[in-house]
């Protein structure tokens, strides 16, 4: 069984952070998984000691948030948001900065181990953490800075993301399973790597995504773009043609037809 198949098989049985570590190891083989897990355990021990005197659950949770963002100084990377280091759990732990999904995964890992009623939500504009106290309305935390966000702010985010007619629906705030969250995370990693012209590792992201949905024409189109950058012209042309055949009404199909013609013209047959 391949590493990717093992990764898929274990997704529903592991925590989000464990899935993220496995994903990081697939894309970045140099990742030291042992170091990550040892460090997380050590940090959790420190956290337990810091909160040992807190008796009230809500006060304990507030103390946890303060420790995460002020004592440990985790924060969102506003300067280099799209840096691929912000998507890697090992780098986020070392640098103490990341993006909502990587910071949120850490927040969930520690918070759930402490017994807090936390869930991850893949909100359309970014990952958020839901706090579900018994018999109380849910609260929402922005992992980027540790601040609570109201439904009014969430509506504003949604409008900014989907346009002025967007409305907040219950499904936008429902808990996400690991495959959904990691699928979104994978797309963010791939986008960051493409921005950095790291096409070899971006191709790994595409291979993982296609192992979940083998016939996704948009993922195949993206793979074609990566192949094109790697000078694999025939493979790029084949992927672009697949997209054209399956999404003829998509505006990008007309542009890709020109790309296919150019790639086929460049293809040299070796006899």
Task: Walk me through the structure.
With about 270 residues, this protein is α+β, with helices and mostly antiparallel strands. The strands form two sheets. The chain has a four-stranded antiparallel beta sheet with strand order 3-4-5-6. Strands 1-2 form a two-stranded parallel sheet. It has two domains: about 5-175, C8orf32 fold; about 215-265, no CATH class. It starts with a helix and ends in a 5-residue tail after the last helix. It is built from twelve helices and six strands. About 60% of the residues lie in helices and about 5% in strands. The chain has helices at about 5-10, 15-25, 35-50, 55-70, 90-95, 100-115, 150-160, 180-195, 200-210, 215-230, 235-245, 250-265, and strands at about 75, 95-100, 120, 125-130, 140, 145-150. The protein is globular and about 70 Å long. A hairpin with a 4-residue loop joins strand 3 (about 120) and strand 4. The model has no long low-confidence stretch (mean pLDDT about 90).
**Portion of residues in helices?**
55-70%
Q: What series of H and E elements makes up the topology?
A: HHHHEHEHEEEEHHHHHH
Q: How many domain units? A: 2
The CATH class of the largest domain is identified as: Alpha Beta
Using the CA coordinates, give the radius of gyration.
21 Å
Please give the count of helices: 12
Shape: globular
The total beta strand count reads 6
Strand content: 5-15%
CATH topology group of the largest domain = C8orf32 fold
- Tell me the structural class: alpha+beta
**Second CATH tier, the architecture of the largest domain:** Roll
Main sheet: strand order: 3-4-5-6
How would a crystallographer describe the biggest sheet? Answer: 4 strands, antiparallel
Distance between the termini: 37 Å
Averaged pLDDT: 92
């Amino acid at each position: 069984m391949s590493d990717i198949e093992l990764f898929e098989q274990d997704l529903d049985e592991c925590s989000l952070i464990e899935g993220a570590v496995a994903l990081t190891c697939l894309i970045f083989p140099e990742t030291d998984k042992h170091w990550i897990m040892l460090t997380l355990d050590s940090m959790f021990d420190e956290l337990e000691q810091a909160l040992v005197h807190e008796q009230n659950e809500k006060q304990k949770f507030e103390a946890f948030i303060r420790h995460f963002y002020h004592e440990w100084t985790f924060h969102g990377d506003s300067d280099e948001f799209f840096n691929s280091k912000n998507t890697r759990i090992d780098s986020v732990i070392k640098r103490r900065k990341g993006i909502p999904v990587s910071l949120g995964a850490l927040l969930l890992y520690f918070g759930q181990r402490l017994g807090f009623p936390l869930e991850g939500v893949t909100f359309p504009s970014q990952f958020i953490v839901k706090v579900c106290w018994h018999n109380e309305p849910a609260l929402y935390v922005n992992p980027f800075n540790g601040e609570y966000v109201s439904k009014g702010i969430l509506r504003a985010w949604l409008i900014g993301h989907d346009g002025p007619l967007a409305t907040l629906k219950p499904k936008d705030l429902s808990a996400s399973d690991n495959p959904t969250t990691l699928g979104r995370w994978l797309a963010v990693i791939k986008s960051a790597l493409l921005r950095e012209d790291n096409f070899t590792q971006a191709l790994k992201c595409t291979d993982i995504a296609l192992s979940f949905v083998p016939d996704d024409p948009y993922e195949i189109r993206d793979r074609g773009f990566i192949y094109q950058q790697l000078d694999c012209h025939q493979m790029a042309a084949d992927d672009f043609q697949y997209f054209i055949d399956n999404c003829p009404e998509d505006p990008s199909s007309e542009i890709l037809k020109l790309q296919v013609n150019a790639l086929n013209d460049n293809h040299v047959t070796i006899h």
